[in-house]
Amino acid sequence: MIHLQINGKHHSVDVTPDVPLLWVIREHLKLTGTKYGCGIGMCGSCTVHIDGKAERSCQMPVGEVQGKKITTIEGIPEEHPVKQAWIKAQVPQCGYCQPGQIMQAIAFLSGEKDPTEEKTVRAMEGNLCRCGTYPSIKRAIQLAAKEGRKP
To answer: Alpha-carbon distance 131 to 94, whole Å?
Structure first.
């Protein structure tokens, strides 16, 4: 039995420790906001936070995250500055990559209060978008950083 803390709730799942966290999140816990993209950790669609750090859940064995705080897109409040900036900047097109993009952006901004365009591009380069909304994603991240600095 594997014991997890996801989005502030405790879960127990009967899986082997080598099962990818992504499959536990989607198939066992039915939290389908985290997406399956490439399965090799290269596209970022499966990005979640593990103890506040952006990680690819498709490559993370569930046994390695017991006792750690896991957050999926469902655990991010709608009023979060990044989610609000995504709406204001009209980022989504097909929307498939957006949960992973948002999770990566939140982790980036948690350690970078005044991101330059270069730092933003570098932080987000592992998250792919087939629709090519990269300019809107950059705008949203800049907007979220600005909103987060307001007193």
So the answer is: 7
Please give the model's pTM, rounded to 2 decimal places.
0.93
Domains and CATH numbers, the chain: 2-75 (3.10.20.30), 81-149 (1.10.150.120)
| Residue 99: pLDDT band with limits 50, 70, 90 | very high
Helices in the chain by DSSP H: which ranges?
21-23, 81-88, 98-111, 117-124, 134-149
User: 44's torsion region: left (phi>0), alpha (psi -120 to 50) or beta?
Assistant: left
Q: Are 20 and 62 in contact (CB under 8 A)?
A: yes
Please give the structure tokens belonging to residue 109: 């901004």
